[in-house]
Write a structure and sequence with these properties.
Blueprint (H helix, E strand, L loop, with lengths): L2 H17 L2 H4 L17 H7 L6 H17 L7 H26 L3 H27 L6
Length: 141
């Protein structure tokens, strides 16, 4: 399967999860306050208001999304290439985490197959990005 197909699948899977969380979508907290908390202080309330808050898969997706977004909010260097590589590592890890969640909780075999392909592709791309950063003397994390 071509890599662009896998990437498109990852985007579709991520979009499906975000669409399933309409209460979360508008509460990123990215107003004027760009401190270290990244606006996550009221996500707990938003999450609790969701009718599916007790669903184990929903809880796992929320935790994965929080980790991914936190990882993507690192210090920016001003070098677009380095910032892209650093941001994509947690983004790809988020896709892996989401794929693992659907493997644990999902039932549709086509989605499960896509999740396995996403894991393989994203792990390969994370390795490339880590190597690229390391070769140029940049911290990976």
């Amino acid at each position: 399967m071509p890599k662009w197909t896998l990437a498109l699948g990852a985007v579709a899977l991520a979009g499906a999860v975000l669409l399933a969380q309409p209460a979360y979508a508008g509460s990123h907290g990215h107003g004027d306050d760009h401190g270290n908390d990244h606006g996550h202080e009221d996500q707990g309330e938003t999450y609790a208001d969701n009718e599916h808050a007790d669903n184990p898969a929903v809880q796992a997706y929320r935790e994965a999304n929080d980790r991914m977004h936190e990882g993507m909010m690192g210090d920016f260097t001003g070098d677009a290439d380095v910032d892209f590589a650093r941001g994509m590592i947690p983004h790809h890890q988020g896709a892996i985490d989401m794929a693992n969640i659907v493997l644990e909780h999902g039932e549709d075999e086509a989605i499960r197959d896509l999740a396995r392909e996403i894991i393989d592709a994203q792990e390969e791309e994370i390795a490339f990005l880590r190597d690229w950063l390391d070769e140029r003397g940049h911290d990976v994390d």
